[in-house]
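User: Hi! I'm working on a homework problem where we have to compare a predicted structure to a textbook description. Could you give me the structure for the chain below?
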Amino acid sequence: MDTSTQSLTAIALQKFKKNFWGVFSFWFIVFLLFVSLFAYVFAPDHSENANQMHLSIHSKSPGFKVQILSIPLQKKEANKLSYYFFGFPNSVTEIPISKYEIKANSISYTEFSDDINLAQTKEIGLDKFPGAKSIQEVAQQNIKAEQFYLGTDKYGRDLLSRMLIGSRISLSIGFIAVFISLIVGIFFGALGGYFGGKTDAFVMWLVNIIWSIPTLLLVIAITLTLGKGFWQVFVAVGLTMWVEVARVVRGQVISLKETQYITAAKALGFGHFRIIFNHILPNIMAPVIVISAANFASAILVESGLSFLGLGAQPPIPSWGGMIKDHYSYIILGKPYLAVVPGLAIMFLTLAFMMIGNALRDALDVKS
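Assistant: Happy to help. Predicted structure tokens:
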């Protein structure tokens, strides 16, 4: 095919499409974005943060199935659109049971327990179920068999639901931290590379200072300053990743600012910032895009490390790093999947971004 009449963007896109692993990783991330956005629709546990606990069925293996008795706590509110994105209010108490018996106007049930001798038998009347016309209707509508496809964690919460909702943290940290690093890095890198002299010396001094501090230690310091929390982690990670962007942008600007079309723009009287943002930056975005993909993966790993140390998203908000922290001891207790499952999720997501970065590097390489 003759590529002489095609734009550089079309050529790069055509080369990217030929990279199987790059395309596969792209669609994997798109799929994960879709699942995380509608996590509460797909998750078996629709409660906010998937925090419905069943201590009697803690640490159960994948595929575990049990009957659940749901006892209303309050009048069920009408569904709102926001519930599908942020979780439904917890309006029932769920009790795992091993068996039940219908009596005249009550249900006699035996709570689930691994030790049969400790299982308690209780009775609940029809009056606890507002709107129910008969005890048979209660048994039909409020006792359901539930299967936990990835098992339960140490608090008896559905691991699959926690994984789905926890994906929001990893993806959010990637997008927000990379966005912050791009804004700060492009600004300082462009200023240093274009103006040179003392401005460049100050920018490089700042970059070298931040570069000399281990990333995780710097993130921890910023997090402790801003406080523990969801958004604080995003800001902290973003403020530590801009130095790589700044170095790349600075080098690219230095190589372009002496070209003929930049000299012509200066001769025409264009302002410095117009030249930087309209004529230089659009022509150096290829390496910035590649490093952004790598920074996505780095941000995910840093957030996981912070969550493991207890400085990331705070409970009960689920995060993959926090799930590893809660269950890493189970690796030697015969239930390694509780820590391995979120660990594999982090590995696959990081690998996907790295492969996209490699594919973009090959596609945007003008020499190939």
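For your comparison, note the following. Residues 178 and 295 are 6 Å apart (CA to CA). The chain has two domains: 52-148, 159-363. Good luck with the assignment!
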